[in-house]
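HUMAN:
Just now I want nothing more than another pair of eyes on a protein record. I would be glad if you read both lines and explained how they fit together. I have put the entry right below:
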Amino acid sequence: MEKIHVAIVEDLSEFRSRYSRLINQTEGFVCLPEHQFACCEDSTAILKSDTRIKVVIQDIGMPKGHINGIASMQRIKHHRPDLLFMIATVYIEDVYLFEALCAGADSYFLKTDPDTVFIHHLKELALNNGRPFSGSLMRRILDVFRSQDSDESKIKPTPLQTKLLETILEGEINEAPYSNEELAEQLNRNLKEITREIRAIYLMLHVNNRKEMIRKYQTWRVRLFGFS
C-alpha cells in the first residue's frame, strides 16, 4: 500500500523531531527528511510542486522567516486546494483560531495534546477526510463565528489606508519590506502622514506591530474579496 506523505513546517527542532517520529512510526504514513522545514519560505515551493505530500503539519508562529504559518497556508491553498493542513500551535486565543480557519485550516490541535490525540487527528484527516478539532477548540470556534460579523464590520480602511496596506503587503510578499520613509516616497506623502495612518490602522485592527497588522489584514482581505 502506498504511504501517505506528510510534511512538517515548524521552527522548533524538538517539535519537528517529535512529529516526524510519530508519523514514521505510524503504519501507512511517512515524513521524509526533505519534507521537514524550519521556516515557511523554505517550504513553499516544495509544498506547491510535490504532489506526493497530502498533509502538512503547520506551525502558526514562525519567527525564523518573514511569513507566518497562516499567511503561508493561504498562498499554498490557492495553488493546491486539495492539500490538507493540520495547524499545530501553542495558541488558544480566538484571533489565531479564527484566522487559521479563514486561511483554510483542515484541522487544529494544541502542541500540548498527547501523542495519541495527534495521531488520531492525523488518521481522521488523511484517511477519513475528517475535520477533527479538540472539544475545547470546537466550543471556541462556535463562539468566534457567532461574533465575527460584528467584528468585521468595524474594519473600514480609508482609500489611503488601503493603498498603504497593499503596498506594505506587496513589500512583504517580495521579501523587500518598506520602511516608513520608503512608504512615504512610494505613495508621495510626507512621513508624518504615513506614520499617523499606520497608527490609525493599528487601532482599527487591534494590533501592536506591523507583522500582526499584515496577518490580520490578509485574513480580512481573503474573507471580503476571496483572494490572498
